[in-house]
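@channel sequence for tomorrow's demo:
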Amino acid sequence: MVKTFPKPLALEEFLKLPETKPASEYISGEIIQKPMPKARHSRLQAKLISVINAVAEKGKIASAFPELRCTFAGRSLVPDVAVLRWSQIQFDDNGEPIDDVLVAPDWTIEILSPAQSANRVTANILHCLRQGSQLGWLLDPSAIALY
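structure tokens (generated this afternoon):
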């Protein structure tokens, strides 16, 4: 018996699919759904975004976004926190950021979930760094005191 494998999905086809919750990422023709964040993960994400935006948005330096889909260099990733320099953010006529981000984030932050592979998350960070990200962090909420 000959085993047949489905044709890998093209990036353009993936982008037409409805969003999933939690988000799915597109890597090398594969769709990989991220695990649902837990309390420590969500709290750390919220604190990071709050602190970064308190400093960076005031002077229009940068903006931190939670779970922002970034599609670039053949992948579509959803970092836990994506920070874009202000000059990288495209705005519509109403001054709102446009929805489709087609560049690597300037700073990508991933917060490790218990069900996630540290190797896979690290590979996503390295991909971002190879494509122009200036900084990449991998945080383990079980190793950080949040209170």
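heads up for whoever presents: The domain at 35-143 is CATH 3.90.1570.10 (tt1808, chain A).
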